[in-house]
Amino acid sequence: MANEIFFYEPQETYGFLSNFALSPIQLSDVVWPTSEHYYQAQKFTDPAIQQQILAADSPEQAFQLSRQYEAQVKTDWDNVKDAVMRFIVFEKFRQNKHLAHLLVSTGEQVIKEHSHKDAYWGDGGDGTGRNELGKILMEVRAHFAQIEPFNLVHFVDSAKLPTQWGTFQMYGFTETATGKEHLALVYGELDPETPPLIRLHSECLTGDALFSARCDCGFQLSRAMQNIVDAGSGVLFYLRQEGRGIGLINKIRAYHLQDDGADTVEANERLGFAADMRDYNFCRGMLSFLNIKSVRLMTNNPRKVNALEKAGIKITERVALQEGNNPHNENYLKTKANKLGHMFDKSFVG
Asked: Which residues are catalytic?
């Protein structure tokens, strides 16, 4: 059925749901390689057996060891196994945030462990099994689906994106609150301990795709991607917030007002909008998915800096992005500087 997710082998599409999927879990001063290692070890009271299972080279080996010592399994195991499984599955996703994002992104679909070998934790292969592991996973999903940043965006899929600057990995997200689709273009390998160079770029169809010279958006987009490649790694977030959040059609109306003499701020306000309608809170979900804890932000906009800091995103450095000054956008840039506080060098805006 289309509303069901089946998982079994760790290398499959939904393999991260399996207890055999590599996902380190630290409990006190002990790190368990997988939830399967922990679950199998809890069947025994003998510390030597537990240690042997902990040291198993693979979850498959951990499973086999528990079978080898089956005669020494705790007498009350059947009474406590559900609680043990529920605990370790929750910890797996609590401690591995990327996996929690993936779990929440499965939405409302029914999750089933498709195992013909197990009719208790799985569906028995024919759908008649109890699927207790699937039920626990859905309970854990419901928990994280109520918590930020996991509920801010849903990850959809990823693919390679070759560009004139280099090949990026493109990640697609849907914003939970609005249904808008956003992208993260990742270049190189991101180090969780090193703030990457990033750009939060709001969609500008006219500047980005139609080569408009009446704004600096397309020029900034090109320069940002080049800067990220030059840095060796980084992320370009492409956000569907056209016209500083007023949308494409209203942007055309604002352009008309600008043609008649209004500046970019006055045009928005005459249409009944604030000068900047954008919201960046949902970006926390995208950054969390990519395990980014702090950033070096390419922007000239102090409002963007303040908005991200208010949303709990740590900015270690603001990197100026001054590009695209031309006769068609000279007044536009001056308005951004004078009315919106954009931080340009005097030599750039004239």
From this structure: 276, 278
